Amino acid sequence: MSEPAPNSSPRIGTAEREAALADLGAHLEAGRLDPEEYGERSAKVTEARTAADLEPLFADLPEPRPHRGAGAVAAPVTGAAPRAGGPSALARWGPAVSGALPIIALILFFTVPIANSWVFFLLIPLGGALFAQSRRADDGRRDRDE
Where is the DUF1707 domain (predicted)? Predict the structure, then answer.
């Protein structure tokens, strides 16, 4: 096997691609990327073979971004994407969705032909519990950040 040229970009592995995807997720959560652009950039990250392939995907974005340097290797992703300072999408949209759940349950009750259609009304407390839990989790993260 031949030696790589000195100016060539080092190859990246799964850990570096996962770290780049986590960084893109942080930008999506912060509102810097819309879902369509996030999808396009994520597809390019999964196809990236070298560190140079990742650079144009983050050129117009602030930190976090994949770091490249002599012997720099990204750590594997072990948890959620870094917090960008704002609430999560679930916490942001949760109140609106939970407010719409009674209407959604009523529509499903009258339009879906099943014998026990009353089950759709269980969406209301289940959704409330889900969104309340996400609010508690966000409040805990915010307290640790301050």
Answer: 11-62
Per-residue model confidence as pLDDT tens digits over 25-60: 888 888 888 888 888 998 898 899 998 999 999 989
Residue 26 is which amino acid? A
For the whole prediction, is pTM greater than 0.90? no
Point out the domain boundary residue: 74, 103, 119.
74
User: Are the C-beta atoms of residues 115 and 55 closer than 8 Å to each other?
Assistant: no
Same domain? For 70 and 93 the reply is no
Residue 80 lies in a domain: no
